[in-house]
Amino acid sequence: MKKKVFGLMAVGMLLAVPVMAQEVPQATAPAYNCDFQPSCEVAPGLYGKMSSPVQSKFNLSIGGFVKLDYAYNSVNFGKSGSLAPASGAIPKAGSTAGSEEQSIFTARQSRFWLKVGGPQLLGAKTNALIEVDFYGDPSLANEGPQVRMRLAYATIDWPKTQLLFGQMWDIFGPMAANTQDFRQGSPFGAPNNPRVPQIRLTQRVDLDPTNSLRLVLGVQDPNQDDNNNTMTTGYYSYNVGSAVNVAGQAMWVSKALGTAPGFWGLSMNSLTAGVFGLYGSQKATNLANGAGDKSVDSWGYGFYTFVPVLKSKDGKSRAMTMSFEAQAYMAANMSFSSATSIPFVGNATTDPKAAKAFGLGAQLIFYPTQDLGISAGYLRRNAYNNHDYATTVTASGPISNYQRYNTNVFANISYDLNAAIRLAAEYEYLNTHYGGNTATAGSVLANQSNIGMNSNTKSGSANVMRFCMLYFF
Question: What pTM, to 2 d.p., does this model score?
Answer without folding.
Answer: 0.83
